[in-house]
Amino acid sequence: MTVVQKLVPEPKSPRPGPGLSVDEQIARVLERLAPHAAGIAAVARRLDAEDPRGPSAVLEIVRYFNDETGRPDHVLGDTAAEAPDLFGWHLGRDVLDFLHLTGAVLDVDEYDLTQDRADDGSGS
């Protein structure tokens, strides 16, 4: 069993618009999880003890680039002046401390969905 937190907005709150950086998404997730860090750590330790193939706690980040499927979270036609630069991100000390406290690992997947790459099967 794995404890996984994906970077998605909380359903009750307004959905964040496109253009939110990874740093901002992580900050929003950790705001919600931080009060529960000790409990997350306890569950992760127990699960790791039961199944040492772990890790049991994972902060998972998945990003898709050049997705032109028209999904609502992807804005087509933004000019460079209007669209924020979403490349590059970093983890602050607070994020590293949270990962350490909970025993969580970081898993990052990024996929380039440019049509040429998708056609030749080298999409990641």
Description:
- Strands 1-2-3 form a 3-stranded parallel beta sheet.
- The protein has 124 residues and is an alpha/beta fold.
- Helices cover 34% and strands 17% of the residues.
Keywords, please?
4 helices, 34% helix, three-stranded parallel sheet, globular, alpha/beta, disordered N terminus, 124 residues
Separation of the first and last Cα atoms:
27 Å
Structural shape: globular
Structural class: alpha/beta
Radius of gyration from CA coordinates = 17 Å
**How much of the polypeptide forms β-strand, as a percent range?**
15-25%
Series of H and E elements: EHHEHEH
Write the layout of secondary structure elements.
Elements: E1 3-6, H1 22-33, H2 37-50, E2 57-65, H3 93-102, E3 105-112, H4 115-120
Parallel strand pairs: 1-2, 2-3
Quick overview of this protein structure:
This protein has 4 helices and 3 strands; from the N terminus they run E-H-H-E-H-E-H.
